[in-house]
Specification:
Elements lengths: L3 E8 L8 E9 L2 E7 L8 H17 L4 E6 L4 E3 L4 H6 L3 H14 L5 E5 L2 E3 L1 H7 L3 E4 L6 E2 L2 H4 L5 H10 L2 H9 L6 H6 L5 E2 L2 H11 L10 H8 L1 H8 L8 H31 L1
Parallel strand pairs: 3-4, 4-6, 5-7, 6-8, 7-9, 8-10
Antiparallel strand pairs: 1-2, 2-3
Helix pairs in contact: 1-3, 3-11, 6-11
Length: about 280
């Protein structure tokens, strides 16, 4: 299917990431496809997030309202999420880079579709969930929230989108079992709306009449109200913001207090045994 290229946004090189680009094409009138390539696995670095925000601005303010589709030029990965060490070492990364990106998609003033063409892990899956619709290409790849596997907390601004959009039992399996969903399982769980290639995304757009949905100017406002719990958490700053260090410190205190209570109980059992 022929597509007209509209613009390209470079993703600058930073530290261990070689950079890349985000290319916008239009396979149909008022359908804007953002295809990113940031080797090796499209991590959500500050540079990547800024480039993607710029692309969204260009579409909103430089083109007629329509539908935005995101996908990857790297067949194995839609996005492998954060570079955790880089995120932690970059001051303000969550509040000033990652969460504004999630919020931008969540409240974007026209329909958005994540076309998941490969693995979407952790933050990559979160990014897809902040879109309005999801299409899984089906050939390969999994989506999952795997914080359990590497011992990281799932912060409230990250978790809330799954609580809102996923069924309770799916949310449980996703978080507490780190379950991986292929295209078939994701469709059955209601995490994606269709399985297929670009033709499936275009069919979804046509059947639901999505191209015209953003034309009245109310689309983003309606979404802001629909998802106000997530919006509030993503907007939180300073003392109101979720702090992973504080969460981990609270867990450390809880364990220390529990160990102390267990020691005291054990001592009482030892005293009873002496009687």
């Amino acid at each position: 299917m022929a597509s007209n290229e509209l613009f390209t946004i470079p993703v600058p090189t930073i530290k261990s990431h070689p950079g890349g680009s985000i290319v916008c094409t239009s396979p149909a009138p008022q359908v804007y496809v953002l295809t990113w390539s940031s080797p090796p696995d499209n991590r959500l670095t500050p540079a990547f997030n800024t480039a993607l925000m710029t692309a969204l601005d260009i579409i909103e303010f430089g083109h007629p309202p329509g539908v935005v589709i995101t996908t990857s030029a790297i067949s194995k990965f839609y996005s492998n999420g954060l570079d955790l060490q880089l995120a932690i070492s970059s001051p303000g990364f969550f509040e000033n880079s990652l969460y504004p990106l999630f919020r931008r998609f969540l409240t974007y003033p026209m329909p958005t579709i994540a076309m998941i063409n490969g693995h979407g892990f952790a933050g990559g899956f979160m990014l897809a969930m902040h879109h309005d619709y999801r299409v899984f290409t089906g050939a390969k790849g999994y989506v999952c929230v795997n914080e359990l596997e590497f011992g990281a907390p799932l912060l409230p601004p990250m978790s809330s989108i799954f609580r809102i959009k996923a069924a309770p039992h799916v949310y449980r399996d996703m978080v507490l079992e780190a379950r991986r969903y292929d295209a078939k399982a994701a469709l059955e769980a209601g995490l994606v709306d269709a399985v297929g290639e670009m033709d499936a995304a275009l069919k979804l757009i046509q059947e639901r009449g999505l191209v015209k949905k953003g034309s009245t100017g109310a689309y983003g406002i309606l979404k802001t109200e629909m998802y106000r719990e997530s919006v509030a958490l993503l907007d939180a700053k300073g003392k109101d913001a979720a702090n992973p260090a504080e969460m981990q410190a609270a867990e450390k205190r809880r364990k220390a207090e529990g160990a102390k209570r267990f020691k005291q109980w054990k001592e009482t059992q030892s005293d009873k045994a002496k009687l």
